[in-house]
Write a structure and sequence with these properties.
The chain is of the alpha+beta class. The chain folds into two domains: about 210 residues, PmbA/TldD superfamily (PmbA/TldD fold, 2-Layer Sandwich), CATH 3.30.2290; about 140 residues, no CATH class. The protein has nine helices and 22 strands. Helix 1 packs across helix 2.
Amino acid sequence: MRPQQFVEDALAASTADGCVVIVAETTAANLRWAANGLTTNGQSQSRSVTVVSTFDGPQGNAAGVVTRSVGTGEELAALVRASEDAGRAAPPADDAAPLVADYASADDWAAEPARTGIEVFAPFAEGLGEAFGRWRGAGLALYGYAEHTMTSTFLGTSGGLRRRFDQPTGSLTVNGKSADLARSAWSGAHTADFADIDVAAVTAQLERRLAWAEKRVDLPAGRYETILPPTAVADLMIYAYWTASARDAEEGRSVYAAGGGGGTRIGERLGDLPLRLHSDPDYPGLECPPFAVATSSQGGLMSVFDNGTPTGPVDWIGDGRLRELIRTRAWAARTGAEPRPPVDNLILESPGAGGDLDSVIAGTERGLLLTCLWYIREVDPQTLLLTGLTRDGVYLVEDGAVTAAVNNFRFNESPVDLLGRITAIGRTERTLSREWGEYFPRTAMPAVRVRDFNMSTVSAAS
């Protein structure tokens, strides 16, 4: 059956007071390579169906949510029954709200699902093959993975709402290594279709970093002027976004809380620079669904009752001030505020900022240049203190030039606090977070320089 038919049949079979059906049809293709040679390639197709069954009760509304891979009408009927059984057994949900009413949209509900295949890599693979030859001749080795997915999401409700969106997602991760594997450099990129990936430019950047690492010096732990490239900025800003729940802030459980009386830091200046952290479903190259899609409820961030809620441009931080927090419809109704569903992209900009990573390096007298961060974990939600490790290249910058590679560190930093310590910022460019790119790939960030970045201990990680 077509995905649209799964939606209609599930809604027709439902006996719940309310029902939401989400069908995600996904095709994917991938390439993997190691030591300058392609090792695997493949493509796949999958379908998942989520049924949300809601039930009205004297104590409040409850919801049962079940997601399965479904291929037949019999399996779909069993999924609907399982969702209803879960809903009847569930306690009242504290995020309960009436299902989103039907509204007009320009979606082409009847169109076939969009698809991808291995052919998406044709120009990219040609460039990759040329790079293999160059690197083999230089005694260096390339390792990496490229993946492209196309997910068509169809969302329908018992109230008549029908929305659909076709989401292309491409990601590239590449490691360049010396022949003895003692030196390593990493690069990553997000793309919609791989047509904009310049393999020669990516590999040239890796060669440059490996050359920087031919000289190495050891440095102690401490606070350093530190340059974060766009991917490392994304590592930190995504986590700041994921924790930006209005409910958590108003209940005093997050870095965005103010005082003990249910206040928040909305309106407070977080940094001297006119930073803008925002989301926009129509941002060029980072397009994402203009409506909420929730296959589970997640605290104050996301609710299955909000499926289909229109999303639009929103400034989370504007002119350096906290402007807004994520807010479910239920929490908005409880607090008298506007609902603010999350959007599946994130952009950090500063008006008038220009120049690339090299320009930020050139303006640095002495400091460290990171490549990326990994193994990031939360230490303290009240300050959003995070800890993690550096990886695949930390470099010493002296008098505006990179002079050597240095050892890795464990860091302890709050992404909200460091917004107030940015001393230089470059232009915004699309990037891929090393740590979170698999879950949140659509980001655009600048390179920044931060004073007193806390390298808390030296790490033995390579």
